[in-house]
Amino acid sequence: MRWSRGAALPAGVLVVTVLLMVVGLTVGFESFNGKGFVARIVIYPVLMLAVPLAWWWRHRGRGVEPPWGAFALVMTPFLVDVLGNFLDLYDRIEAWDDLNHLVNWFLLLWGIGLLVFPTRESVARPGLTVLTVAGVGALLAVLWEVGEWYVFLKAGVESDGLYQDTIGDEVLGTAGAALAGLVVLRRRRRGAPVRVPGDPSSPTT
């Protein structure tokens, strides 16, 4: 995978996310307690790099410019989640968790949608495009909630109302993904590129 100025944005998102977790764990932030951040500091970077590495494996040797903008969209929800815990926004703002599930899934599936549907021609069937993006988002929302169930319920932390919270989070995540599907469809049908700020050579995807 070739490095370019466009890579600065996703790389910056990754670095800031890791630094926030390192600082929070080192200082011993109370807002990190019981949230599985010892595991997250390993899992989050792996998840953030999974999509770029998968893209690179598929396109290796083809000389194609990586879609840095889409990568940044996929990575940003992890930064938002860590920042929310770093600033203790989950406890200070009642609606923060719900807002996160809606917005983060929108950003995540916007990025994934641009990768799955890389051209105008790939969205020839609009309904299928939106349904695919929404469906992937729903699946990822379920997998995420399974992970939270393991961390919180198994550890005996935040178990009150966990089931109701899980259902709500899955609905919000799916709604965010559906919105992302509509955005992907609209941008691809207009042929609009996703450009990384400050990089005029940023690719279409």
UniProtKB/TrEMBL annotation:
Coiled coil: none annotated. Pfam families: DUF2238. The keyword Transmembrane applies. Keywords: Membrane, Transmembrane, Transmembrane helix. The chain crosses the membrane at residues 7-25, 37-56, 68-87, 99-117, 129-147, 167-185. The keyword Membrane applies. This is DUF2238 domain-containing protein.
